[in-house]
Amino acid sequence: MKLRATFLFILIPILIYAQEKNESTSKKWDKGYCNFTSYGYLIGSGEDEKTFVPSLHMEHNYRFNKNFAFGLYTGIDWLDFTVAPIGPNLKILFPDRHNKTSFFVGGAIGGSIALQDKKLKNYDVTDTRGGRFANIEIGVTLYDQSKLGVFVAGGYRHQQISYTRNDWRLNQIDKTITYNRFVFKIGVRL
């Protein structure tokens, strides 16, 4: 009887520890900070001559539960001139039961900051500004045994940029360029 009791007292903590360890490694939906870093292209025609515009984005989110994450959207887009979009971001995630994949829908709105001046051949550009943007996407994340994931996403992006130029006939002209493009990106989820 003493041997059985001693065996159970040794075995029970080991089993409990093993169960807790197994749950913690298979659960990838913890509350807290999560990051989506991606590289992709804004694809389509706009008022410029670039069909494929590269973009690099980071989404710094706080995950409230397994389905919702809210945070800050930042990045760099190489349009006619380089702009840095910044604004709030919301992700709705749909993880599977086995914690191997997660489908998501995300959206962001905000403004962009011009990182370089617009250059025109025959005009003097006096002021370069960013503009507003809106982004919506749908994608899938594939996970390995850790919390690291790789994702692919596609969606739609609306971006405006503006500048002011001097004209020889008129004093100044404000010009706004609008981009409506498809988005395709791949990235890592940390």
Main beta-sheet strand count, sense and barrel state: 8 strands, antiparallel, barrel
Shape: elongated
Q: Which residues sit in consecutive blocks of at least 5 with pLDDT less than 50?
A: 20-26
Number of strands: 9
Detailed description of the structure:
The chain is mainly β and 190 residues long. The chain is built from 1 helix and 9 strands. The chain has a single domain, classed as Porin (Beta Barrel), CATH 2.40.160.20. Strands 1-2-3-4-5-7-8-9 form an 8-stranded antiparallel barrel. Strand 7 and strand 8 form a beta hairpin. The longest helix has 25 residues. The chain is elongated, with a radius of gyration of 24 Å.
List the keywords.
62% strand; mainly beta; Porin; 190 residues; 9 strands
In brief, what are we looking at here?
The protein is mainly beta and 190 residues long.
Q: What is the topology?
A:
Elements: H1 2-26, E1 32-43, E2 52-63, E3 68-78, E4 82-95, E5 101-114, E6 124-129, E7 132-143, E8 149-166, E9 172-189
Antiparallel strand pairs: 1-2, 1-9, 2-3, 3-4, 4-5, 5-7, 6-8, 7-8, 8-9
